[in-house]
Amino acid sequence: MKAKKRATPHPKPVDALVYPRFSGIPTFMRLPHIPRAEELDIALIGVPFDGGTTYRPGPRFGPRNIRVQSAMIRPWNPVLKVNPFEKWRIGDFGDLSINPLSIEDTYQRITEQLDAVLRAGARPVCVGGDHSILLPILRAVHKHHGPVAFVQLDAHGDTWGGYFGSPHSHGTPVKYAIEEGLIQKGSALQVGLRGQVYGEEDFDFARKHRIQIITSEEFHRGGVDLVKRHLARLRSRPVYLTLDIDVVDPAFAPGTGTPQVGGLSSAQILDLVRSLKDLKLVGCDLVEVSPPYDNGEITSLLAANLLYELLCLF
Ligand SMILES: [Mn+2]
Q1: 6 C-alpha vs ligand 1 centroid, how far in Å?
Q2: How remote is the CA of residue 22 from the centroid of ligand 1, in Å?
Q3: Ligand 1 centroid vs 286 CA: distance in angstroms?
Q4: Cβ contact 201:162 at 8 Å
Q5: Would 84 be classed as within a structural domain?
Q6: How do strand 148-153 and strand 238-244 relate by DSSP bridges?
Q7: 174 CA distance to ligand 1 centroid (A)?
Q8: More exposed terminus of the chain, fewer Cβ within 10 Å: N or C?
């Protein structure tokens, strides 16, 4: 994809006051607030919805706190040797309109709004919100790219069925995305899964649909090299990437809805995200940051840095 007219001038910290958002909340990475997707190559989009959480609530405040913690992000990535703000026109698109009382209505709203963003030629980077927002995002992506290859960094597979008679929650989006054909058959990779499940049959869905799984235990043994071997199959296709912050160990990212011990460290997740560099990314998201459960804002700070690393993958 070719960059639009000109790259976004990335403001220096002192310029942060030039871009005050409403209520004094800064924008993502001090970028200009540009709610017009046609002016953007990459749109950073808040999705403040947590009506799909099954345990700890709070990720509706994720976009707000990640914006605040992203205030000190600088433009040059010395590891990947890239300045994403020079390469692409990137802006803070603002938050999507959601309905906090209805997951079905929220799904419709997200798909419609992202459809417009994609139609305007911008690639969406969504900041959740809980993981239930993945399904309507993928529905919009599917309209423009067809079935995509899929990489999920997460402690959980999110392939469970409904809860209490409701089909959708943050534990179900991948199941429906596969069943609706939004993800190309045999092209899904999940990294970081761990923790107890209800039974061995919880993996039946993944087996049936040939989802490749690298558990946290396997990652701790095989590292990024193991992941890179699996990525080889996905390189020729459009890829969608979803990052659930709970892939990181609660010692490093306590502010999340369903924490699982034995996860990745901050250094490991940085390394893992950077290893995804040469994929044909059509969009990505970062979800499940729950500020009310954070300590010293370390989860939002890590998320802000990971968001920057995601921009460096395009
Ligand atoms: Mn998840």
Answers
A1: 35
A2: 30
A3: 10
A4: no
A5: yes
A6: parallel
A7: 9
A8: N
Predicted TM-score (pTM) of the model is 0.94
pLDDT at 164: 86
Task: Quote the tokens at residue 191.
Answer: 């990294």
CATH number for the domain spanning 96: value is: 3.40.800.10
Q: Is residue 69 part of a domain?
A: yes
Q: How many angstroms is it from 157 CA to the middle of ligand 1? A: 7
- Contact between residue 25 and residue 38 where contact means Cβ atoms under 8 Å apart: no
- Report the pLDDT value the prediction gives residue 226, as an integer from 0 to 100: 97
- Is 1 part of any domain? no
Q: CA angle, corner 192, sides to 66 and 270, nearest 5?
A: 45
Domain that holds residue 196: 13-311
> What average pLDDT values come out for the chain (314 residues) when binned by 10 residues?
66 51 73 93 97 95 95 94 95 94 97 98 97 98 98 97 90 97 96 94 94 98 96 92 98 97 98 96 98 97 98 98
Report the SS3 class of residue 128. strand
Q: How many angstroms separate the alpha carbon of residue 104 from the centre of ligand 1? A: 19
Residues, the chain: 314
Contact 242, 188 (CB under 8 A): no
CA atoms of 259 and 253, how far apart (whole Å): 8
Query: Which pLDDT belongs to residue 26?
Result: 85
Query: What's the 75 CA to ligand 1 centre distance in angstroms?
Result: 29
In angstroms, rounded to a whole number, what is the distance separating the alpha carbons of residues 10 and 5? 15
Q: Give distance in angstroms: CA of 171 to centre of ligand 1.
A: 6
Tell how far the Cα of 110 is from the centroid of ligand 1, in angstroms.
18
Domain count across the chain? 1
Amino acid at 186: G
d(CA 143, CA 115): 8
